[in-house]
Amino acid sequence: MNIKHPLRVTSVVGLLSLPLLLSGCSLFGNESASIDPPPSTTEQSMIKAVTGKAPISTGQLRAVFLQDHNGLLAPVSLPIATGDVQADAKSALETLVEGGPYAGLLPEGFKGVLPQGTEVKSVTVDKKNKLAVVEFNKSFGSYKAQEERKLMESLTWTLTDRPDIQSVQIWVDGKKLNEMPVGGTPLDHPLTRAVGINLEVGHGVTPLDSSPVTVYFSSSSPAGVQYYVPVTRLVSPEKDRVQSALHQLIQGPQTQDGLQEVMTGETALKSVERSKDNVITVSLSDDMFAKGEAVPAEFLESVVLTAADNSEDTVKTKIRIELNGEKSVIGQNNQNYGEPVAKPQHINEIPL
């Protein structure tokens, strides 16, 4: 059953001026096994040195946060990882450079947000503190002021997609930045996912008296390929963050930027229950679905993404979904979401 709904629309303004004291979460998706072993880090470096372009890789998938054709950041899984933490972090950042060495690997409708000409001079990972120290050349500062937050979100969420890195420190030409070079956003502390992503303010909410949740809506590429987009929304504080996030998912998108509702107008959240084995059971009701009817995967996976990313332990948490009292909930992708679903490692494997 295919469900299409009109977008809920509201204008969100002034997001660039919001404080960075937010809370963020991790992502999810499916990991594909590589067919052939990827080129070694040395081989890749030699190819880039000669051609200025990265080789087409059959490496492990790595999520990078690119700007889509609607101007939003979305994770895209690319086969660029080799297993070396620092080399993989450097390659991931290079995919974010507009017109950079990985431009030929990006799907239609997606682009990097780092200014053209930006070079990733080095990435050093402090494994004990899970801190990535990144050094760029001076071209890093050639962006426009209104692009500053998006740039910060993109590089931070890209580097912290793996559990090896939780925070990011930015350097330019041998000097640590104490503030961003164009808009002057303070960098007194390393960046974390607390910066949020695609930040927006909930209806009737005052930013200084709010709590952030990250929800996953759906969108489509110019070629019609579906993918998920995380949105950090500032909402009125609630005791249960997972429940709060699911309420926002049901409410749907607020902006006219290509996001699509994944719930129907009849969806209601009945309960959120936790067990000692890190399983969250989300109980929903929706009269649109008959008993035994397969449910759109977008509906179910958005629930898994949103609930897992707002839980206390995004790595160990599993999600179980009940719908209309039924404990067996089969998606149109043939997965049983009535069983605990672990958060896969990657999301949005979009073909070129």
From TrEMBL:
Q: Where is the GerMN domain?
A: 89-181, 242-332
UniProt key word Repeat: no
- Alphabetical list of Pfam families matching this protein: Germane
Q: From the UniProt entry, list the residue stretches annotated as the region Disordered.
A: 332-352
What superkingdom heads the lineage? Bacteria
Q: Does the keyword Cell inner membrane apply?
A: no
Q: Which UniProt keywords apply?
A: Lipoprotein
InterPro entries, per this entry?
GerMN (IPR019606)
The record's annotation in SMART domains points to: Germane
**Protein name from the UniProt record:** Lipoprotein LpqB
Tell me which species this is from. Paenibacillus terrae
Q: What is the lineage of its organism?
A: Bacteria, Bacillati, Bacillota, Bacilli, Bacillales
